[in-house]
Amino acid sequence: MSCYNDKIALGTVQFGINYGISNTHGKTNANEVNDILTFAKEVGINTLDTAYAYGDSEQVIGNIPISNDYKIITKYSGSKGVDKEFKDSIDRLKQRMIYGYLFHNFSIYLNDTQSFDEMMSLKNEGLVQKIGFSLYSVDDLLTLLNDNVKFDLIQIPINIFNQKFIPYLEILNKKNIEVHVRSVFSQGLIFMNEDDIPPFFSPVKEKIVDFHRTANDYGVSPTLLALYFIIKNSFVDKLVIGVNSLDQLKENVEELNKIDLEILKNIDFEKFSIDDEKYINPSNWILK
Q1: What's the rounded Cα separation, in Å, for the pair 188 and 23?
Q2: Residue 212 is assigned to a structural domain of this protein
Q3: How many domains does the chain have?
Q4: What pTM was estimated for this model as a whole?
Q5: Which of 86, 100, 151, 161 suits 236 as a labelling partner, its CA being 20 to 30 A distant?
């Protein structure tokens, strides 16, 4: 078993909806979800990441008994108020309490900052262990830090192309804030061959091609290089990796087992960084 497997949080958005630029598999059926959760437990993965807004992902997870063996994190969509939506979530998940409860995006918090106090009440009642935020921009993080908001857990996007949060990881670590990193594969962008890259990404296409070239030069897969970029950072507690199938999870675990920190440590990862939000925030992508 890889010593890195316990650093994975299994992303479950694909259990409830179709998701990802390179997802041709579609929504994962319940039998395969059961197989995924069974295998994940066997290899030392102990955390599930879901959300109220991920279609029926919470129900799918709740209907699989082995999910009781996992730490579960879900997210507040702001649609019903904290107390009601939280109750709906834990009912769907068939849990009495969960590990983490996050604002699904920062605007939900800004629209009703009082809702953070309601989350804190859930924590004080022992219904959730850690509360926090799923963020998209560094500005949102700086707002929380400047306002001295006392949260326990944060989920942020970091990958080969989006490195904007990296300078703040040590600060979060010193505050004992648990850091979960999502979009490790940039929603599938890193897997795309040169000929398959949508025209929208033309201005940054060379960065994507250079990433593939570097992986090839070192004799590793793009998957391994993307995982290594996050794994090597000791301030990251979990990588949220979404999978469509059992085979895909097995591939990711296999790649983790291959990681050699010494061989790859001299790579200059900063050269892959893209500054323009248009190309690193999927909500800005124009793919048609």
Answers
A1: 8
A2: no
A3: 1
A4: 0.94
A5: 86
